[in-house]
Amino acid sequence: MENKIDRKKVLTVISLGAGVQSSTMALMTGTGDLPVPDCAIFADTGYESKSCYAYLEFLKKVLPYPVYVVKFGNIKDDMLKARGTTDFVVAPFYTQETITGKKGMILRQCTNQYKIQPIKQKIRELCGIKKGKHFPKDQYVEQWIGISKDEIGRMKPARDPYIKNRHPLIEANMSRQDCINWLKKNEFPLPEKSACICCPFHDDKYWDFMKKERPSEFADAVEFDKEIRTISRNKNIKNYTHKSCKPLDEVEFSKEDNQLDMFENECEGMCGL
Q1: pLDDT tens digit string along 209-237?
Q2: Count: domains in the chain
Q3: Which domain holds residue 231?
């Protein structure tokens, strides 16, 4: 029988998205509602909203520990540069076959490539683990993920054995609305939901908000949506950012908040927080 190894925690890190939940979790460490971690890490896709970057700067000023920003690349630029090649960044675009009209959705890898891996690399760097070297079996890192109780289905174990995910908001029985209430009670500004500007997981309510309140970002999304129509190597398949498989500027967004939150199915439980 294999002996169980007693592992020592060598680092506590917040996976920071600068959205409502992860920001609440981070700010709770400054008010004594949660213990203080060693640091927070924000993975920048290069295509976040201006409000997200502004809130990140606010957090860097008020949190009592370092906030590291890591980056794999610019997801928008990388996608367009690689059009028609095998280097194409796999994002969850909606697809439609031009001949049959059949609709589908691309399996996503963008979260892993632009969020998970850069954070993991920074964790290894902070722990002094050189590239190609194994993490000591008797050590582990505790990574806090900002998932609230109403998104409990997004809880996922870390892929790497040396990382142990923890979910303080669920432990505190807090929903997303509880997070908003806590921010208001403690007089902190409210962040918006964090995600790439043209993320296909946006629901109609958010697209409508962006169109009315963030017209320059919506215009960027519309242009990007047009560009992705031509990035597939299969000329009979067209890509779209909206589930209707219509150009984004032609979609009439539903005013009812009855669409499923697609982030519920996000592969690592780290986007949109």
Answers
A1: 999 999 999 999 999 999 998 787 788 89
A2: 1
A3: 8-265
